[in-house]
Amino acid sequence: MPASMTGQTAIVTGGSRGICLAAAKAMLDRGANVCITGRHEEQLAEALAHLAAGNRAIAVAGHAAEAAHREETVATVMATFGSIDVLVNGVGINPYYGSLSDLPEDVAIKMYRTNVLAALEWFKLCEKAWMAEHGGSVVNLAAAGVYRGGPLLGAYCVTKAALVRLTEQLALEKAPLRIRFNAVAPATVRTKFAAKFWEGNEEAVAAAYPIGRAGEPEDVGEAIAFFASNDSSWITGQTLAIDGGLLLTTSVDSLA
Asked: Is 228 inside a domain boundary?
């Protein structure tokens, strides 16, 4: 039986849909309080209705890469629930498909700022507000592309690889404070974010996976909840591939 998270509170960035919404649901099912974030208030309202968790779930709208939004969210969570035991860095962007040789510098900077630096900045606020004295768990959403690059996905894969290295470094630095850091690295999951890789081509995508299907948000959401909870209390600095066996094959064509 999964460990209870009753009395704990999680912030899930990018929690209005997809993998991170599934993670929020999985932690709520374990008894946690959850704050989801996202850029669009309407999507957040729909997500809260889907979660149907009453006063155990709240939402704060804003851009994860902006300091003011991060500060507002942390302050709101502390005022509402009194703790921040879990941080799920789920926000990521992938605005560029193509060769690294043609990657515009401003796009590269935007991707790094959102996919890597924002994760560190979110943690620093959570550490100061609660985790430094009480411990906690941080779960970063990477991608299977950290193991092998995919065609046209070089820039995205590089930022996710940096996120994994950040996970490992912080796991080492913060272990004495009992703050754990882990990451999940999914291959193609049937979300809007990854629609380019599966929509309209589902049979061919499924055939590429030894297990016979692409991923579902819940496949990754449950793994995130595992890392967030005390079920993984002696695990830190690890990255879990969630890929239906794709990395066992000799050809990797899509690692969103």
From this structure: yes
Per-residue pLDDT tens over the stretch 100-132: 999 999 999 999 999 999 999 999 999 999 999
Range of the domain at 165: 9-248
Asked, for residue 253, whether it belongs to a domain, the answer is no
Q: How many domains does the chain have?
A: 1
- For residue 186, the tally of other CB atoms under 10 A from its CB is 28
96 is catalytic: no
Distance (Å, whole) CA 185 – CA 189: 11
pTM (two decimals): 0.94
Over pLDDT 90: what percentage of the chain? Answer: 81
- Residue of 225, 120, 105 whose CA lies nearest to 162: 120
Secondary structure (DSSP) of 43-102? HHHHHHHHH--GGGEEEEES-TT-HHHHHHHHHHHHHHHS---EEEE--------S-GGG
What are the tokens at 164?
């994994």
Of 96, 97, 147, 156, which residue is the catalytic one? 156
CATH number at residue 44: 3.40.50.720
Over residues 67-109, the pLDDT tens digits come to 999 999 999 999 999 999 999 999 999 999 999 999 999 999 9
- Asked if 157 and 150 touch (Cβ cutoff 8 Å), the reply is yes
**Quick check: is 255 in a domain?**
no
